[in-house]
Amino acid sequence: MYTTISNILKDAVRRKYAVVACSAINMEMARGIVSAASRANAPIIFLLGQNMMRQHAKAELLIPMIRTLAEYAPVPIATCLDHGNDPERILYSFRNGFSSIMYDGSLLPFEKNIENTKRVAEAVHSMGMGIEGELGHVGIAAACDGRDSSLYTDPADAERFAMETGVDCLAVAVGTAHGEYPKGYVPHISFERISEIRSRLPEMPLALHGGSGSGEENIIKAVEAGINKVNVVTDLFIAARNYLRDETASHPDIPYIELMSGMEKAVSLLAGKWISMTGSEGKADGIRPVNRIRTLESFEVVGLSE
Ligand code: 13P
Q1: CA-to-CA distance for 194 and 167, rounded, in angstroms?
Q2: 102, 113 Cβ separation under 8 angstroms
Q3: Residue 306 domain flag
């Protein structure tokens, strides 16, 4: 069942849980994640980042594959261009069958972020797709950006941003950061900040980026405070890499198909853990997937690069 993030996340707000949003850069990861979601009867979101696609994971190949898996899966599945800020990439997502995009204007001045996000939201909605915006800035874990509270989302600004842009989901900066944290470091998440934003925006799905390495207790509390979408990418990549590393070290002549199937299982196992951590297990039944997503041959996002 292929649908948008807005369709999936409305239910997450209503029933107070979070949906796992993770990346797959090949068939094994995609299938492992879909089978984890299907086993758990949970909705799931696939993220494809701009750079990930430039480097390796081409949407022309991955999106049709994920959409095929979604057609056969018994659970709602969405795809989302992650951290789109390049008009070319946004256009590319319109052409390649994404169901949703995250427009990242978080490094722009507040008014410019509102202006651009609103413009992208209008275009995205006209395509029948869903849109996430970001306010405050979720930085890089290795640079300890999560500790810098000046980057956190301001609750009053969040209220204005949501109202004026028309986004379907808001990514908030509350202490996490992207990628691997320095060894032994577990982020301090501001649950108060999440609750404050939640009380100002009772119906807005809130996204937590930089889920990897954040610790189970933090994730559970963040969801209790009001988070509805948890992005986790690095942890799944590490699980796949470690499986390949360990398995080829202990069985250097392992048949390739066996190796790939083993990696798929390793990814699936970890995805399943995240699904239960976020409380989305068993929630697929409450969602009625809607698919009015259009794919255009060409679409002009006027003036975005100004
Ligand atoms: P991690 O790789 O730290 O889990 O972050 C993922 C993310 O937030 C993608 O937008």
Answers
A1: 18
A2: no
A3: no
Q: What is the mean pLDDT of residues 248-266?
A: 98
Atom of ligand 1 nearest to the CA of 232: 4
Q: CATH code at 228?
A: 3.20.20.70
Contact 221, 191 (CB under 8 A): yes
CA atoms 130, 211, 82, 275: torsion sign: negative
Domain that holds residue 121: 5-286
Say if 300 falls within a structural domain.
no
**Ligand 1 contact via 25 beta carbon (within 6 Å):** no
Please state the pTM of the whole predicted model. Answer: 0.96
pLDDT class for 295, splitting at 50, 70, 90?
A: confident
97: left (phi over 0), alpha (psi -120 to 50) or beta: left
234 lines ligand 1 (CB under 6 A): yes
